[in-house]
Amino acid sequence: MGTAQNVLEVEQLETVFDTPRGPVAAVRDLSLTVGRGEIVGLVGESGSGKSVTGLSIMGLLDRPGRVAAGRILLGGEDLRAASAARLRQLRGNRMAMVFQDPMMTLNPVLRIDTQMIEAVTAHDPGISRRAARERCRDALGMVGIPSPDERLTAYPHQFSGGMRQRVTIAIAMLNQPDLIIADEPTTALDVTIQAQILSEMQNLCRERGTALIWITHDLTVVAGLTDRIYVMYAGSVVEQGPVDDILDTPRHPYTHGLIGSIPSANIPGQRLYQIPGMTPPIDRMPRGCRFRPRCPNAQPLCQEPVALREIGAGRQLRCNFPMPSQDTP
Ligand SMILES: Nc1ncnc2c1ncn2[C@@H]1O[C@H](COP(=O)(O)OP(=O)(O)OP(=O)(O)O)[C@@H](O)[C@H]1O
Ligand SMILES: [Mg+2]
Questions:
Q1: What residues make up the domain containing 122?
Q2: Quick one: which atom of ligand 1 is closest to the CA of 235?
Q3: Whose CA is nearest to atom 28 of ligand 1?
Q4: At how many degrees (to 10) do helices 112-123 and 129-142 cross?
Q5: Does the Cβ of 185 fall within 6 Å of ligand 1?
Q6: Which atom of ligand 1 is nearest to the CA of 17?
Q7: Which helix or strand (DSSP H or E) is residue 94 part of?
Q8: Co-location of 35 and 69 in the same domain
């Protein structure tokens, strides 16, 4: 760890929610790195801690949530030591987040140009109004919004859901940040529009060297889009590595189950696999491996804490009894 090439390095992040009965960890022992221009997927079921991880990195976590341990380095700068003012400066400039609901970003009563120009001038006070406007128009054009000059004067409600989400992506990219965290930005959209937006965003990030963390519960989405994935379960990474490797040969029983439940990965007509049971609530996590109560391979040893370990070729795994490395279909 600690190479200059990494845009983001997260080491052993722990994020807790303070409750009347004490702090409970929503994210634990989470380490991840994203290189320049790299596209990384953060995948897991609902409640696995994906959004909490993204918000922790961006410094956007609200009470009662707080980062309790770990390091978050953006271009080597320690974000946990940064002041609120410094974080505001970094957000929208060096790092940006795209939310599932575009109205988390957009103000419904302001025209798009007002909002976008403000986003430019906030980080570039010397820029002329005309240059700022041009940058906004170009950004809209870049994310596939037709007639961007006219659309600039529209209000958020005058855009379709897909177009509105494109506007927030354009805003995230306005100041050419080093890192964008996209938290399921396309799950509310129909499948064709999802695919379009994904591939456009992939191209833009590749061209500009922007690092992208794409958060999703849908493994089929990350298959075509990402370089590497981190699979999260109950607040921790259980498996990580190159996306094709993991999809071909998942080693963690949880990843294996997730892949088995994808329709396209199965023979038509065959019943889809469903992982038995449910994700435990964060205040009732099982001891040791948190997947243990649902795991077909679990043994008594799994009641002890399980560390993430290297299993070669850039892969890491948190499991005592993994699935075989050569899957026989
Ligand atoms: N404000 C909060 N107070 C208490 N617990 C919270 C709060 N926000 C999130 N949590 C808990 O933290 C855990 C992780 O939540 P998170 O929103 O990160 O999940 P997620 O993986 O993004 O799920 P989804 O796919 O549904 O968006 C969940 O168990 C959730 O209940
Ligand atoms: Mg979420």
A1: 104-176
A2: 14
A3: 47
A4: 110
A5: no
A6: 4
A7: none
A8: yes
